[in-house]
Amino acid sequence: MTSLDRELLMVRREVRARRTSPVAWLPVAVVAAGLIALLLVFANEYGYAPDELYFRLLGKRGLAWGYVDQPPLLPMVVRAATAVFGDSVWGIRVPAMLCAAAVTMLGAVMAAELGGTRRAQTLTAFAVGTSALVLNFGHYIVTNSLDTVAWAAVLVCVLRALLREQGVWWCWAGLVVGVALYAKYIVLLLVAALLLGLVLAGPRKVFADRWLYAGAGLGLVIGSPNLIYQATHDFPQLHMAQALGSTDGTAYRAMFVTNLVLLLGPLLFVLCMIGLVQLFRVPEWKPVRALGIGYVVAAAASYLVDGGRPDYTGGLLIALLAVGCVVADRWVGVRTLRLVTLVLALVLGAALQVVLSLPVIPRSEFHKFQRAGRSLQDVGWQQLAAQAEAAYRALPDADRADAVLLTQNFAEAGALDRYGHGLPAIYSGHNGLYEWGAPPDSAGVVVAIGVDPARLAADFGSCRTVDTVDNRLGIDNPEQGRPIIVCRDREKPWAALWPGYRHLSAYP
């Protein structure tokens, strides 16, 4: 390359850089702070989500290279959160709030990279922060909390690499991907979808950029210990994905479009679709059309392979929403009526999303709103633990000395660990808890919570139902009515029985 070629390249990069806008940090930070304040108001309502009880239990046991159902990062984060902020519902959710704020700000940064004005960036931050997608993973600490941040960060790097023609951003993208592999493997879907998008829509010259391969190598090096764990443990994540697809896939696929609209809200869904279309119509966005193809590819793959969860591609939805907000801002221009209409629609949509996504209904009134939703699963854990403890305390002294607790799922085990007092060892065959091993053969009495009575009857000579789980709130959630059974006279050694209790699934 001659000196003239280098000068021309620098000029072209400067021109592209000028097409982007400076980030409006102040208004965007105000929106993010407002989101954190909103999430704090409702952070302690109802109780732990089932997955939160599981992550807490995994983290409490100590660090691990991986689990059958997930990488190791989230339990580590939960362990750190409980150590810093306290072992409470509020404390465990602080990282989720920070993730929500981070995604909100990253969405605004995307809008800036696309040439959005300060107003467009603020609109993007507000739209992203008030979507059900972000409100949900900002309220609960779940794998999507970390994963969506990673996707959004990767996409910011990709936008900068393509729009500014600054290849070094591929290295930053690779670094984020490598770290993200410790949170959720589905980030590899983003990589594959974007690469296919670049092949189909260009700019294909990036495949001649050494920075792209440096970024890929960096991501591989950082993520390799986690990938080695998978390879040396018979790829448990593939078995988990297969189990989820077989149990939940049909229902999610049938509701894919409906769930996508609910995930964003009607207005934000429209803005996303506008963004998807405009990526292929606005000339200045030609270098990043791969994002549009990437979303279609990722959504189709999620639908066909991974159970049809629209939130699994949430990072790409945020990018499309940023595009849509920039388009909407340009449509508004200087027209006051259009601006008022857009802002009013966003505010009304935000209010609806808050009501649907956060625990705004008082606990005492919740039984009147038996709608399908995750909040139903958050109540009754203390009562479940109290009933299990009462069943254990009712055993004769000799039986208590040899007793163990056996739960059907990881949430029950997590609730007993969190709220139980003076209880014996807790066992479960659900997901990663199965790997912790079977009860000892010295355990002659089992207090089983929620376990299939037929399974217990086949393995024990004597089983008696001593109670049924009742949250005392009249809420018909998955735990309501589950039996608490005391079993004795085990038919075989635990080593022979334990594989029969293993199951891979999401809660419940």
TrEMBL record:
Nuclease keyword on record: no
Positions of the Glycosyltransferase RgtA/B/C/D-like domain: 69-229
Compartment(s) of residence: Cell membrane
Principal subcellular localization: membrane
Species this protein is from: Nocardia terpenica
Signal peptide segment: none
GO molecular function: pentosyltransferase activity
InterPro entries registered for this protein in UniProt: LipidA_mod_glycosyltrf_83, RgtA/B/C-like
Protein topology in the membrane: Multi-pass membrane protein
Keywords: Cell membrane, Glycosyltransferase, Membrane, Transferase, Transmembrane, Transmembrane helix
Protein name: Polyprenyl phospho-mannosyltransferase
Segments passing through the bilayer: 21-43, 92-111, 123-142, 170-199, 211-229, 250-276, 288-305, 312-333, 339-361
Pfam families cross-referenced by the UniProt entry: PMT_2
Tagged with keyword Transport: no
One Gene Ontology cellular component: plasma membrane
